[in-house]
C-alpha cells in the first residue's frame, strides 16, 4: 500500500501549480466541502482521498468474501477519466475531465487493484493500466503527479497495481529503456549506506543530496519488489527476516525485498511499532498506518513471526486511529488477512462491521454465477477527457525534497524514525 497523509495536513500544505512547467506557487483558495455521494465510504471531506479510501474499502470487503454495494462500485468506476487516470476525487463525475483535473498515479493504482479484484471491470482496469504506463518517467519510476520526479512510494504502488493486473513490471519500460524495477531499486540504500542500520531500506526521494531511509517507502517497495499488491495471504512457512545481504550481487527485486523486510523487522524491535515526527512536534509518536503496512510487507516476504509484536501492538492500539475511517479500517482488515488473524475479532474490534458501517451496506451473501455474468456485462462510465498535466506539490515536503505520495492510511512523507 502506499504513503498517505491526512486530508487536513495535505490541505494545509498543498500548493497548486498548473501546466507542464511551474512558474509560480500559490496556495489554493479555500472552498466548501463537497456534498458526499451516497455510494462513497467515509464521512470526512473526500477531496484528497476519495478514490483511495473507496478503493481500499472495496478491496477489503472483497478480501473477506463480501460483495460490495453496486452503488459503491459504480461510484469508483465513474471517477475514472476517459484516458484512464483517476483524480483523488471528482465531485461531479458527469463533468468533463480537463487540464485542471489533477490526475495522480496513487489514486489510479489503488483503483486498478480494487477493480481488478472485484472483477467485471476489465475495460476500466485496462484503461487505468495503459494510463499508468503512459506517465512512466524516463528513469523507470513514477511520480505522484505525472511530469514531476519519481519517488519510491508512487513507483511502488504503481508496480503493485501493474502486477495485480497481470503485467510483468520488469517488462514495463520507459521511453529511455528503463524498467519499472530499475526505477524502484534506485531508491534502495545499499551496502555502503551509513548508518549500517539503514541498509536495505528505501528512501522516498533524495533530500539535500542524500536519500534518507523511509519506512513507508520501504514497506511499499517490499510489496512491489515481490510483485504483490495490497492483498497478501498469510505465509505457509515462516523464516526470520534478515539484514540486506552484503556484498550485494546484481540488482534483484526479490533480494531487494528481503533486504527491505530486514530493515522493517529491525525497526519494529525497539517499540513494537514504527514512529514518525509530525509537523510541529518535537518528539516522535507512534505511526499506526506505517506499522500496519510494515506488518503486511513482512508477511508478504515470509516473515510473519518478525511482525508478531507489531501485530499485537496494532490490536491493542489501533481502535482510536481507525474509528470511522474507511481507509484505516481497510488497512487493518488487510493486515489481519496477511497474518491469518480474524478481522472480526481484532483486539476486540469487528473491523469488518466497522468498515461496512462507513458506507453503503454490502450486497446480501450468496451471489450467483448469473450475478457474476451480469457484472461483467456492465458498461463502465467514462469520465470526459483531459490531459491531467496538473501538479500537486506539498510546500514543506517539496522544500525538503520529500513530496506528497499516497493518502490517508496514516503514512507520512517524512523521514521515519
TrEMBL record:
Keyword Phosphoprotein: no
Pfam families per the UniProt record, alphabetical: Prenyltrans (PF00432)
Prenyltransferase alpha-alpha toroid domain: residues covered: 69-168
Annotated keywords: Membrane, Repeat, Signal, Transmembrane, Transmembrane helix
Domain of life, per lineage: Bacteria
Organism field: Streptomyces goshikiensis
Signal peptide extent: 1-26
Entry keyword annotation includes Metal-binding: no
Annotated protein name in UniProt: Prenyltransferase alpha-alpha toroid domain-containing protein
Residues annotated as transmembrane: 390-408
Disordered as annotated region, ranges: 357-387
InterPro entries, sorted: Prenyltrans, Terpenoid_cyclase/PrenylTrfase
Chain intervals with Basic and acidic residues compositional bias: 370-384
Amino acid at each position: 500500500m502506499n504513503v498517505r497523509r491526512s486530508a487536513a495536513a495535505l490541505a494545509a500544505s498543498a500548493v497548486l501549480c498548473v501546466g507542464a512547467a511551474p512558474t509560480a506557487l500559490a496556495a489554493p483558495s479555500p472552498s466548501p466541502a463537497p456534498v458526499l455521494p451516497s455510494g462513497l465510504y467515509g464521512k470526512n471531506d473526500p477531496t484528497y482521498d476519495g478514490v483511495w479510501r473507496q478503493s481500499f474499502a472495496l478491496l477489503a470487503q472483497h478480501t473477506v468474501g463480501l460483495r460490495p454495494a453496486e452503488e459503491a462500485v459504480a461510484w469508483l468506476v465513474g471517477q475514472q477519466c476517459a484516458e484512464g487516470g483517476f483524480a483523488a476525487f471528482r465531485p461531479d463525475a458527469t463533468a468533463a475531465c480537463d487540464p485542471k483535473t489533477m490526475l495522480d498515479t496513487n489514486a489510479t493504482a489503488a483503483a486498478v487493484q480494487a477493480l481488478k479484484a472485484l472483477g467485471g471491470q476489465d475495460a476500466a482496469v485496462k484503461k487505468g493500466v495503459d494510463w499508468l504506463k503512459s506517465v512512466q518517467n524516463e528513469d523507470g519510476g513514477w511520480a505522484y503527479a505525472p511530469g514531476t520526479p519519481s519517488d519510491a512510494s508512487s513507483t511502488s504502488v504503481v508496480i503493485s497495481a501493474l502486477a495485480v493486473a497481470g503485467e510483468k513490471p520488469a517488462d514495463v519500460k520507459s521511453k529511455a529503456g528503463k524498467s519499472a524495477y530499475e526505477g524502484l531499486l534506485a531508491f534502495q540504500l545499499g551496502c555502503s549506506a551509513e548508518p549500517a542500520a539503514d541498509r536495505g531500506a528505501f528512501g522516498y526521494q533524495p533530500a539535500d543530496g542524500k536519500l534518507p531511509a523511509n519506512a513507508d517507502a520501504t514497506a511499499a517497495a517490499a510489496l512491489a519488489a515481490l510483485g504483490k499488491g495490497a492483498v497478501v495471504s498469510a505465509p505457509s512457512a515462516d523464516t526470520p527476516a534478515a539484514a540486506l545481504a552484503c556484498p550485494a550481487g546484481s540488482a534483484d527485486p526479490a533480494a531487494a525485498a528481503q533486504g527491505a523486510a530486514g530493515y522493517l523487522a529491525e525497526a519494529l524491535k525497539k517499540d513494537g511499532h514504527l514512529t514518525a515526527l509530525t509537523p510541529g512536534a518535537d518528539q516522535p509518536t507512534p505511526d499506526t498506518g506505517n506499522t500496519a503496512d510494515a506488518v503486511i510487507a513482512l508477511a508478504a516476504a515470509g516473515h510473519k513471526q518478525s511482525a508478531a509484536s507489531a501485530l499485537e501492538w496494532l490490536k491493542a492500539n489501533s481502535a482510536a486511529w481507525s474509528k470511522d475511517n474507511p481507509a484505516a479500517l481497510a488497512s487493518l482488515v488487510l493486515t489481519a488477512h496477511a497474518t491469518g488473524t480474524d478481522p472480526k475479532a481484532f483486539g476486540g474490534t469487528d473491523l469488518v462491521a466497522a468498515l461496512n458501517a462507513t458506507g453503503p451496506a454490502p450486497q446480501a451473501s450468496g451471489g450467483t454465477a448469473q450475478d457474476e455474468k451480469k457484472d461483467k456485462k456492465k458498461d463502465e462510465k467514462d469520465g470526459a477527457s483531459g490531459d491531467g498535466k496538473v501538479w500537486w506539490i506539498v510546500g514543506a515536503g517539496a522544500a525538503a525534497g520529500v513530496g506528497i505520495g499516497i493518502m490517508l492510511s496514516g503514512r507520512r512523507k517524512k523521514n521515519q524514525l
